[in-house]
């Protein structure tokens, strides 16, 4: 949809049938930024060619790599949705998946910049939210791809009607947390990833919920919305949440 909006607006053409990049290339030279405790990092930026879609669903992530013997390297890149890994045993809820999303991971065999005087070292990589979107889409990674083909993960993952994104998920230590309200959800019905059926539940402005099932639209109880097999969640950040100091 983002590609198609840009084509309609004349930003680029795609006559060969291939997919066109909607993200600008990385700048050759980053700039040095000063973060918490006066620690510096070489920061590079990626950005969307903006559309009406990215104005609603678009945000930014800050990916930071730290290695011994060199300055930290940070990349700010855009997103339209957050992909959440729900496979690990420790993930039982959306909150668990978000914590895992922002937990630093170890990178083996990392080679720092040419200016560094060390060889291959271990490094850590962390991802935080730099800029929150107006409407946040969370994609639960229920489909996997292996040598034998695709599979579907039927693991229960719980989520609330109101989700708090705390400061620990945000790149800036001075940013306030945000409270998002669930407004829509997509579910995949079926045991296999290659088969099944999709439905969408949406919150009406008057507060009740509707289920869209092909040509059928009907009101449903909130208990049917809050099931544990969601595939994608959409929430709006109408509410501000102040984290206690």
TrEMBL record:
Catalytic activity, reaction form: Thiol-dependent hydrolysis of ester, thioester, amide, peptide and isopeptide bonds formed by the C-terminal Gly of ubiquitin (a 76-residue protein attached to proteins as an intracellular targeting signal)
Domain (USP): residue spans on this chain: 1-238
EC number(s) given by UniProt: 3.4.19.12
Alphabetical list of Pfam families matching this protein: UCH (PF00443)
PROSITE patterns: USP_2, USP_3
Annotated TM spans: none
This protein's name: ubiquitinyl hydrolase 1
Start and end residues of each stretch annotated as Disordered: 10-30
Family, per entry: Belongs to the peptidase C19 family.
Record field: compositional bias (Low complexity): 13-25
One Gene Ontology CC term in the entry: nucleus
UniProt keywords, alphabetically: Hydrolase, Protease, Thiol protease, Ubl conjugation pathway
Gene Ontology molecular function terms on file: cysteine-type deubiquitinase activity
Entry superkingdom: Eukaryota
Gene Ontology terms: biological process: protein deubiquitination; proteolysis
């Amino acid at each position: 949809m983002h590609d198609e909006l840009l084509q309609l607006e004349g930003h680029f053409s795609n006559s060969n049938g291939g997919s066109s990049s909607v993200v600008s290339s990385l700048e050759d030279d980053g700039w040095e930024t000063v973060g918490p405790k006066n620690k510096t990092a070489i920061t590079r930026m990626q950005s969307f060619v903006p559309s009406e879609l990215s104005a609603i669903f678009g945000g930014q992530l800050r990916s930071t790599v730290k290695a011994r013997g060199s300055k930290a390297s940070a990349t700010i890149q855009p997103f339209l949705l957050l992909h959440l890994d729900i496979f690990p045993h420790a993930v039982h809820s959306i909150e668990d998946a978000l914590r895992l999303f922002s937990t630093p991971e170890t990178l083996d065999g990392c080679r720092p910049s040419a200016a560094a005087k060390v060889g291959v070292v271990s490094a850590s990589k962390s991802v935080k939210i730099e800029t929150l979107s107006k409407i946040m889409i969370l994609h639960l990674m229920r489909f996997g791809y292996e040598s034998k083909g695709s599979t579907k993960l039927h693991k229960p993952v719980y989520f609330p009607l109101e989700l708090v994104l705390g400061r620990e998920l945000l790149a800036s230590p001075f940013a306030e947390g945000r409270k998002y309200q669930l407004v829509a959800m997509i579910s995949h019905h079926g045991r296999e990833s290659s088969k099944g059926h999709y439905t969408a539940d949406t919150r009406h402005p008057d507060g009740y919920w509707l289920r869209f099932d092909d040509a059928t639209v009907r009101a449903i109880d909130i208990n049917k919305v809050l099931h544990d097999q969601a595939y994608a969640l959409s929430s709006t950040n109408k509410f501000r949440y102040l984290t206690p100091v």
